[in-house]
Amino acid sequence: MTQAHKEVRVRIAPSPTGDPHIGTAYIALFNYVFTKKHNGKFIIRIEDTDQKRYRADSEAMILSALKWVGIQWDEGPDIGGPYAPYKQSERKDSYREYAEVLVNKGHAYRCFCTPQRLDELRKAQQAQKLPPGYDRLCRDLPKEDADKKLAQNIPHVIRMKMPMTGKTIFKDTLRGNIEFENDGVDDQVLLKTDGFPTYHLAVVVDDHQMKITHVIRGEEWISSTPKHVMLYEMFGWEQPEFCHLPLLRNSDKSKISKRKNPTSINYYRRKGILPSALRNFLALMGWNFGDNREMFSTNEMIEGFTWDRMTLGGPVFDLKKLAWLNGQYLKQDSNEKWLANLKEVVFNDEYLLKIIPLIKERVEKFEDFIDNTAFFFQGDLSYNNAPLIPKGRTASEVMGYLNDLVLKLDVCENWKHDEIHNIFNEYLSEKGLKPKDVFMPMRVAVTGSKETPPLFECIEVLGKDIVQRRTRLAIDYLKTIKE
């Protein structure tokens, strides 16, 4: 896979639209290991072109989480490099220039279809059970007509003109040659009406400009790769080598999702997983030494790394296996390291100072501290016979309330108790419910008890990852209750 005549350069390109995803750490690890094996460069590039979903705090969280995991990059938005800037929003002007190049070459066209027309098209395709996609109405619009609309400042996007016949074939390091019929590939939007590129244009332009030699990413991008290959051909650029890693899976083999597994790196940090154990665990997601070895360092992985030891069967993200592996690492740590980790991860000053104001009025002796705060330090809670169901409500109803609130809290950016309280009050008003219908089930779900410090202050201190995890476990428990 290596290109001996070139310096190996790889990248990951996370989108700052939410909490740092465990899948990002997984992909980052394999990029890091591969490039270190070949004395190359590992780059982080922030893909923030989706301005509707962009979160200002997300970029900092992603970088912080990856540093905690123990993955260091050679170039990136925080440290710069020879191909800066490393944020797409700061490279915006160049994308328009490249999109215009494709238009002038006849490889792209301006599409003036309104959102309303496209929505009607999607609905009609759904009704006829046709595959979704643009019907290419503007593809052959005469240049003079397009110029008139352009002069009138009619909003438009720029779409790539995908060939209607033939095949696009590319070689994948793990899968061999992959073929796509061109007539089944959509005329992808390259530049949106707001002037921002879509992922597809930006990733090709950036990878070319940053001299990326190998694109190592998840297999969910395989279906997009023919568009990228075609863009390389349209520009006349040498394309990188592609390697699509198997997706992380839940135990039922579905794609890993927060509904069944915690997906935020911060959750595992809070849980007390060691970075070395997490890297080891992620390395086992599809890769092995060719023997039965399960514990190894990242440096050992770099030394023994080859792609032929990668398997494509969807690796199962097994929390029990991760806990076992973490336990093995903990057994090897000295007492002094244990103490340091406990102070840093569990009993750090910042966390304790958030808890103390909530229990000062409830505690008369320091020995009462643990009884009043145990849920702040516990992992998953048990809900056997827990009072999750208020009088007059059913398990199904409460399950619905909690599920609705999980979804609402998931998009809460300002994780403060007053904002969280507002979300709950709005939900009560929307559903015509009383506080007791929702507050008590939520209190029990996140703390395991009816008697706790103020609910919303507790939710704030516990943090989104723990609250979401516990609430989903409570929902799973309610599913087992017969009515």
UniProtKB/TrEMBL annotation:
Presence of the UniProt keyword Ion transport in the record: no
Named cofactor requirement(s): Zn(2+)
Renumbered ranges of motif 'KMSKS' region: 255-259
GO cellular component terms listed in the entry, alphabetical order: cytosol
GO process terms (BP): glutamyl-tRNA aminoacylation
PROSITE patterns: AA_TRNA_LIGASE_I
Keyword Transmembrane helix tagged: no
Signal peptide: none
Subcellular location field: Cytoplasm
Root EC class: ligase
Residues that hold ATP according to the record: 258
Keywords recorded for this protein, A-Z: Aminoacyl-tRNA synthetase, ATP-binding, Cytoplasm, Ligase, Metal-binding, Nucleotide-binding, Protein biosynthesis, Zinc
Reactions that this protein is recorded to catalyse: tRNA(Glu) + L-glutamate + ATP = L-glutamyl-tRNA(Glu) + AMP + diphosphate
Cofactor details (free text): Binds 1 zinc ion per subunit.
Residue span(s) of domain Glutamyl/glutaminyl-tRNA synthetase class Ib catalytic: 7-324
HAMAP family: Glu_tRNA_synth_type1
Function: Catalyzes the attachment of glutamate to tRNA(Glu) in a two-step reaction: glutamate is first activated by ATP to form Glu-AMP and then transferred to the acceptor end of tRNA(Glu).
Subunit: Monomer.
Family membership noted in the UniProt record: Belongs to the class-I aminoacyl-tRNA synthetase family. Glutamate--tRNA ligase type 1 subfamily.
NCBIfam families: gltX_bact
Annotated protein name in UniProt: Glutamate--tRNA ligase
Originating organism: Fluviispira sanaruensis
